[in-house]
Every structure is written in C-alpha cells, then in structure tokens.
Specification:
Layout lengths: L1 H15 L3 H19 L4 H16 L3 H19 L4 H16 L3 H19 L4 H16 L3 H19 L4 H16 L3 H19 L4 H16 L3 H15 L14
Helix pairs in contact: 1-2, 2-3, 3-4, 4-5, 5-6, 6-7, 7-8, 8-9, 9-10, 10-11, 11-12
Length: 258
Amino acid sequence: MQTSWLLDGAATYLHEHGRLQKAKPLFERALRIDETIYGPDHPSVATGLSNLALVLQDLGDPAAARPLLERAQRIDETTHGPDHPEVATKLNNLAMVLQDLGDPAGARPLLERTLHIDETTHGPDHPEVATDLNNLALALHDLGDPATARPLLERTLHIYETTHGPDHPEVATDLNNLAMVLRDLGDSATARPLLERALHIYETTYGPDHPTVAATLNNLAVVLEDLGDPAAARPLLERTLHIAEPPTAGTTPPSPPD
C-alpha cells in the first residue's frame, strides 16, 4: 500500500512536469499493486486506471486510454452511484478521450451528464461547472453547432471572470474559444477584441514567445483576414512563425506567404 502511494506520487510529479515516458511505468506498477491488494473493482483501482489513462492520452494514445477510463467509470458508478463527483470526473476524462478519437457525438452525452452532476453537486457558478460548459461547447462546435455552443462559452466566461478575475489564463482560453465560435457564426468583428484580450493575458502570463501566444496570434490573424485587413494580419503570422520555428544563429527566418 505504501509502495503504491509512493509510486503514484512520483508518477504524478513526473506527469505534471511533462516526463510522460517515465511516469507511465510507475503508474502501471502502482495499478498492479492496488489490484493485487484491493481486487479489480476497488475505488483505488479506478483512480489508478484514470491516472494511467491520462498519461496515455498525453502520449498520443487515446485508443489505449479509452478502455481504462471505461473500466474506471464502471467501478466508480458501482461504488458511489451514478451521480457522484468521482463519476463526473471519469465521464469528463472519457469524453476528452473520445474527442481526441474524433468522436464528439460520443463525447456529448458524457459531457452533458458531467455538467448535470457538477451543477447538482457544486451549484451553477462553480469553476468545475465552467470547465464542463467549456468542454461541452467544444464538442458542440466540433459537431457543427456553434450557435448552441455560444451561450455555454459566454456562461463559462462569466464564471471564470467572477472566480479567477479578468486576467486569468482560464479567462483567456475561454475568450479564444468563444472568439472562434463567433467567427464560425460569421461575426469576426466581435471575435477580434476577444482575441486581442486573450493575447494580452497570455503574453502577460507566459511571455511573448510561448506556444499558446503563437496559437492566439494565428487565430487573431485569421480573424483580421476575415475582416479584410491582411496588412494587420501579416506581422502576427510572422511572429507566429518565429515562435514556432525560432531561427538559428546566422540564419534569416523565412517570411510567411503573401
């Protein structure tokens, strides 16, 4: 039991610091120990299955993660009942794996269930609910329904601004997601100031050369192109390219295409 706890703690640390290949075998060992001690259907086994699945997902193997999360969900539902917060966590994780597998239709009902559980457990204005709203909105967006996704993201933004303040990275992420939905709804003019605000938050939080900054620059450039302003878009694309492929000493970075 102590060995399993230590392995899980070390693996979690490695996972959080991006050392996925080293985290995976530790999670696997911890899971085997818990299954031996507690049996295959214990809540600790469900936690171990979920931890391992998340590493597999981050390693780019959602197909391997899926059955682990399905098993973890069954264990938690049997142990805690269908409306427990642990069940919501497993449902959300499984939905994200289905999204990665290109199955937003399969993810949608899981996310709707997650949202219902978390609203009942935490109330309508909790950060967990905001996360659920965001994830459900992204699935709806992928399903070609930006009109239904929009109010969910607007509600997410309100919750995050209230709980975290106006300049938090979670706020920036939702601003970005909402802007992309507005663009798909043909409203690039409204999307633009949201992306500009998201960019400011990200640059302040992460610095000017972070990959998240590059992604936001790219999105803002696309919106500026939509608005008929390629001259304003070009320097943003050049910055995006510079962040993605920083020049080596003595070389000149290529320009983006006209």
